[in-house]
């Protein structure tokens, strides 16, 4: 997708999620910029979203990630993300939720 990425990963409890995401963002930013894949300098927006799932939910999560084009034909990523936050009663401030890449 042009405005977000999904990563499905098994995370050991001793590793901080924020450190892992920081490493992924740093590594991918450097790789994209070194290979000149975009005009100008690429950088990720601040922050990230993370959801956990049980092993029994993996197949459904994989299908969800695979079918992103279908999901976002009906609603934007931002709309879907806000729906998740509200559905699972996650406190948030919409001012800090993903900005459009228009």
Parts with pLDDT < 50 across at least 5 consecutive residues: none
Number of helices in the DSSP assignment: 4
Percent of sequence in beta strands? under 5%
Q: How many strands, which pairing sense, and closed or not: the largest β-sheet?
A: none
| Terminal Cα span | 13 Å
Overall spatial form: globular
Q: What is the β-strand count? A: 0
Structural class: mainly alpha
Overall structural domain count: 1
Written overview of the protein:
This protein is mainly α and 102 residues long. It has one domain (17-96). The protein has 4 helices and no strands. The chain has helices at 17-34, 58-66, 68-74, 77-87. The longest helix has 18 residues, at 17-34. It is globular, with a radius of gyration of 15 Å.
């Amino acid at each position: 997708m042009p405005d977000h990425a999904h990563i499905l990963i098994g995370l050991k409890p001793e590793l901080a999620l924020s450190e892992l995401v920081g490493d992924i963002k740093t590594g991918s930013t450097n790789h994209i910029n070194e290979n000149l894949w975009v005009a100008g300098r690429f950088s990720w927006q601040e922050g990230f979203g993370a959801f956990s799932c049980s092993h029994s939910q993996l197949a459904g999560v994989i299908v969800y990630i695979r079918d992103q084009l279908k999901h976002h034909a009906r609603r934007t990523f931002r709309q879907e993300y806000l729906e998740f936050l509200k559905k699972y009663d996650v406190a948030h401030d919409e001012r800090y939720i993903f900005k459009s890449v228009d």
